[in-house]
Prior knowledge:
Number of domains: 2
Distance between the termini: 21 Å
Number of helices: 17
Number of strands: 0
CATH topology of the largest domain: Growth Hormone, Chain: A
Order of helices and strands: HHHHHHHHHHHHHHHHH
Shape: globular
Amino acid sequence: MSAADTNSPPPGASPGMTLAVVLLGVLVVPMSISGAAVALPDIGKDLDTSGAPLMWVVNVYNLLFAAVTLVAGSLADLFGRRRVFVLGGGLFASGSLVSALAPYILLLDAARAVAGVGAAGVLASAGAILATTFDGAARTRAFAAMGTVVGVGIAFGPTLSGWLVGSLGWRASFLFYVVVLALVLLGSVRIAESRADRRPQVDVPGVITFVLGLALVMVGLVQGPESGWGHPLIVTSLLLGVALLGAFTQVERRSDHPVLDLTLIKNRRYTAWCVSTLITSVGFVGTLTFLPTYFQGASGASATEAGVTMLLMTVPVLIAPQFGGWLITRGFPPRVLMALALLLIAAGSGWLTVLEPGIGAGRLFGPLVMVGVGMGVSFGITDGQAMSQVQPERAGMAAGFLNTVRGGAEALVLAVFGSLLVSLLHSRVGSLPLAKEIASGNLPDGPEHAALAGHFTSAWHIALWWVAGVCALGAVLVFALLAGPSRRERAGHFSEQRREDRVEATVPEP
């Protein structure tokens, strides 16, 4: 147990039990993204909606997840990691329950926003709980297991959701999350509480400026393609959001108890791992979310069939994290492994341009597996390597910021990827409403179906080449950032160690 733990563990608590409960909670966070994406066509038909209101079912979850994760991580350090984990699980379950019962799209979007807030609490505190429960090689194995569970959620989210949607309807897919989270809340009584040794006041100005600023920027980016980038509300949202984020940095510089200690970002290695998770999101999330829609729209596949096909990409995400963790524990250089993972995603995305209507699993096997392996390796090493760069008392803050970057990147990728497909389709079909319908997987039947499916395919090819290029450049950037520590960083570490040694020398032995 870490020195940061201030409470005695509850009866029955153990590292193994803690790991099991935390991993079960982590499971449904990515599953709720990938699973909801498969259900979108059926939700659109049932609730008679398309375009931005429909895409907000996925986007608002990611947006709130991104905006709240940093705050949740810092609050977990202050008030207790277990406490925030339980509160997040409760909000996540409540939002999922309302989602399953929602009679119209606006209520569904609002419920998904609540679920996103809850998911932020679960994931930010989960990383902090593992970081303060395990040390050394055990920590590496725990975070590799967390990466595997994320892979499980991504791997089986589309398949399970597709089966539930096809058999019981889209509402059943949200009820599944409620059941799992109920088990998590029951098991959480076996998790020991921990918090930072110091408990300063909550940085209320920092919380407000960060959450509102990031939320306004993300709303502008997501809604811009729908309303037009010159729309006064979009311009106002983006400008006000940027201004609030600028104010946030000034508030944090002056705060004695910042929600984000800006010196954390100055840690080049920690920042490099944050950059790596941003780039992997670019390479994976758009394909994960929108490819099932392509299968259903262009190829006429059912939700179940689309989910099964996605296993080619998602099952490797289940297997590869442990392999990545195994390589790290045996001395394989993390920077080399991360660069190779990004290059695999880049190569697989380029290869995926073989995509065409009616394509079989045999031709999709190579590119989808390659993308999945690259993403899985990334999942297995990113969190553990990032958390190893920070002190235990800042574990919640560090986990929160890392997952804020990840969630923000995912929300941004979904917005950009979706708007790119719509824009490319609009340039080909000449009708924005029709382009939105095609991008949502609702291609009209009849003689024009084949031509529209061809346009859909061409738009996908262009988007995939962009993804491949970003990931290839990202591999070079991350490899450079993860080079040996600079002279300044080595000097800073040496000075910090000297200070700690002096403090220890002044404390009399008991």
